[in-house]
Amino acid sequence: MFILTLIPIVMVIxxxxxxxxxxxxxxxxxxxxNYIEVLTDRVFYTAVGNTLFFTGVSVVAHLVxxxxxxxxxxxxxxxxxxxxxxRVVYILPWLFTVAIIAVLWRLxxxxxxxxxxxxxxxxxxxxxxxxxxxxxxALPAVTFINIWAGYPFYMISLLAGLQGIPRDLYEAAxxxxxxxxxxxxxxxxxxxxxIIIAMxxxxxxxxxxxxxxxxxxxxxxxxxxxxxxxxxxxxxAFSRYEFSVASASAVIILLFSxxxxxxxxxxxxxxx
Length: 272
Hints:
By secondary structure, this protein is an all-alpha fold.
């Protein structure tokens, strides 16, 4: 942990207040100039806005889909074989690596892909849409891909939580005259609240740091429409070779992640 985590963090922080680092043997101290350059860059705020949209929509959709599918798999209305089949189908996105997911959806969302074919066949559109290349659809498209890839984590965790709720609580609610909807509001959700909060915090941390999916589908384009904080920092370092500015951007992201981690750890301690 010391070698692989603490030392790199200290090095990046030191780079963020220097200039001419890595590629130059005579770095010079510049103070907070790199931070000022990042915080006055319009692309940085575009990346912040895109990251907030990408994260917010993904986390909410993950929760809604995960809870819906978990309740479907926990219901007594379906047979054992049907539940087993649904478990296999719903868990599939969680089994694929990011590279496979990116390539798969790039093929499906291409102008000649299956998505456009189905929409044209159904009469919903007239011509193929450049889902990942259009400024109007690129951000919603990558957000949808992330939602599809991430909801099984919520589903599995919430399904375990649902199966751990005592049946006595539902029987008592039934005796008190509560219908299914009231049982969901007053029994199911309160029992799942600790799990939902913990997963949502983790999901926010993970989603704000999502890089591979964005880079392998849109690369932050077109024209910064899908630029995230992760891709913005990467481009500063390895496309523009401004390692000092990239380090400043990385430190800003680190501070943001530390705030989220603080609330997550605090919640876990209060839960314990």
